[in-house]
Write a structure and sequence with these properties.
Blueprint lengths: L14 H18 L28 E5 L5 E3 L2 E2 L5 H12 L7 E5 L5 H14 L4 E3 L8
Parallel strand pairs: 1-4, 4-5
Antiparallel strand pairs: 1-2, 2-3
Helix pairs in contact: 2-3
Length: 140
């Protein structure tokens, strides 16, 4: 008696039912999760009775020099262009804080001497973060 062997077939794993189960679980968890609102607290803030503004010290000092040689420190015009006046105005604005950034900007027609005077006063006061403002030529 001769027995013949049939070729063995590889068993197949049906993935369709597994994918169906995973999708059903995903839908179940999405529906069953509760979206929690964050708790909110109602706060009634006080209102100011007076409208007085408290002047805060500036974060930066700006020295502007006009074409006529007039100096403006943080937008306020100085009474004259003497170095002592510039020094007093800078000390008042900075409150002795020499670490504040300082920007010197001058009109294109201002004399070079006015810019040098401002730089000299600033250097003697001990300011180290000094910038000189420039304007790029739009024709370039």
């Amino acid at each position: 008696m001769k027995l013949s062997l049939r070729p063995r077939t590889q068993p197949e794993v049906n993935m369709t039912s597994l994918i169906d189960v995973v999708l059903l679980l995903l839908i179940f968890f999405m529906v069953s999760t509760s979206f929690v609102k964050q708790s909110q607290i109602n706060i009634s803030l006080p209102e100011a009775e007076s409208s007085t503004l408290v002047e805060e010290p500036p974060e930066q000092i700006d020295i502007m020099i006009t074409a006529t040689g007039t100096y403006l420190v943080n937008g306020r015009e100085l009474i004259n262009n003497r170095p002592e006046t510039i020094r007093n105005a800078l000390q008042k604005v900075s409150d002795g804080n020499n670490n504040m950034p300082l920007t010197i900007s001058a009109d294109a027609n201002a004399k070079h001497q006015h810019v040098v005077t401002a730089m000299d006063v600033v250097g003697r006061l001990g300011f180290t973060q000094i910038s000189i403002a420039t304007v790029n030529d739009p024709a370039e």
